[in-house]
Amino acid sequence: MSRDVREGRTAWRKAAVIALPALLAVGAMGVAMADGVLASSFAVSGKGFQVSAGALSGKGLASFVDVARTADGAGRPGAVLGLGEAKLSDICQAARVDTPVGTVTFKLSAGGKAGPVTARNLVLNSEDLVGDARFGQVEIGRDAATLDRVPGVRGEPGRFGLQASDVSVDGVRSHSWSATGGDFRLRGLKLTVSLDGPACF
Asked: What pLDDT, in 10s, does the model give residues 77-105?
């Protein structure tokens, strides 16, 4: 009986030794994602949404071509755009969703008189971006796997990429598949859901 107990204890210790490195790795990734260090990966809904802002600026820019995947595996081509320390004014995000009662507009706005919206390591997966832009020191055509301006934002080897020391864009208009960010602060947040309501643009 006592030998069985000792064997059980020994097995648990072995399991703990094996599991500990994996647990530490998962914990480190969780902390990194909470801090916005890594661009999180998830299945997109397949329903794009609008994003607009009066102005956008970022310390550090990294971008590369990628494919966003839906839960059923379908691909949505786009460009991953990562911004280090991001600041946006008059931000708007809107999606039109078909429901049994009609087309509903899910709309989120922030900024304006309440102050700028800020985020660390803001990452957008977008199919387009329109605006008047200014780049700092820029590198176009860099291998996506070697991008280093925004922590955790890099693509697969051989893919087209670009990066810049800083960027500012006025009159931002974009259609996107996903957005993630660390320490996302939305001053003056307003969320509305309405039947056939107006989108951002």
From this structure: 899 999 999 999 999 999 999 999 999 99
User: Dihedral angle at the C-alpha atoms of 96, 172, 62, 137, nearest 10 degrees?
Assistant: 180
Q: Hey, where are the domains in the chain?
A: 1-34, 49-195
113-167 residue pLDDT tens: 999 999 999 999 999 999 999 999 999 999 999 999 998 899 999 999 999 999 9
Q: Within 10 A of 167 (CB to CB), how many other CB atoms are there?
A: 23
DSSP at 149: S
